Amino acid sequence: MNSDFLKNFRYTPDGSASPADALCDFIKCEIAEGRLKAGETLPAIKDIAEATGTTFRIARGVVERLAREKYVRSRPRVGTVVLSRNACALHGRVLFVLPDVDACSYHATMIADALRKSLGDAGYAFSTVVFSRDRQIGLSFLKHELVRTPDVAIAIYSTKPVRKCLREAGVKSVFIYGDEPTKDEGLWIRFSAEEAIANFVQHCVRLGVKRVMQVRFDGNETPDAGKALAEKGIKSGWMTVPRMDELGRYEGIERSAYNVFLDMPRQDFPDVFLFWDDFVAQGALTAFLGRGLKIPGDVKVVALSNRGLGPVYSEALTRFECDASETGEKVAAYVLARLAKGRMPPPPVIAPRYVFGRTMPY
Most exposed: 128, 133, 200, 330, by fewest CB within 10 Å? Predict the structure, then answer.
């Protein structure tokens, strides 16, 4: 088998997928789109490794995985043979698109993993492409992937240039988070914290809270509990933590929040801090510990948190908890319903749960 097709393989070490996942997804796409036909043989493992810049161990693992999932079969004295598309129940290809600044985030990675599993089990090849906000690099990787038109693209935290690129390529698109797209751009899966905010406000009323301070980092779009609090006579305001991008996206946010809350006068503290970002919360909590403050004795804290990976603190956080794996499963079910072209369910709404902890006791 000629290994020329492997020259189209691209891998960027951005954390959104491992080299093995990326290579496996690439070969599945080649099969799905007919460039690797039933009966053809894959190159030798050492040739795959050399052509793709991976290791022999990674290439061997990918071939073994393809065999387990019935995309290929090893035949003595013949090699690794591509099976028919019917044999591997391959129905098409789904592309997951995300920005480089979020490619290493726990939340986006868990959504991608859940999508890959659910869609893969349903017979769809799944691949990830990262777009850069750098004007010199821009959308080059995305445009390269769109040459091989996927059945659907799922974009998270998309930008207007990304939506335009997908629209011009004629790709059906589903968008997670971000601004609502226009009707001709695709379908939007909305994030709503309304129910969690209502539960938070009820909690504040029960505890006699008089003032809440909502906190975000500069440039972060967040929900707003202000109106719901005002309806119950509770005052609220906003703090915006500046970013220190020179330290990196996440470390810079955490360090900046640490500096802000280490120096914040005690007389400026509200009854409750509501942190709409887990890295801001982590920096603030570290500063509070450094100042010898007691939570919830000196101040009560509620924070946005990922299920399985929230801010680290000595007490369980009261939190708006997001379940990224559940989000990925909901999105996958919705996409599969669209691809089946049957009766369409309404788009799912992604919502955090309000979970009681010790930083704002029940």
Answer: 133
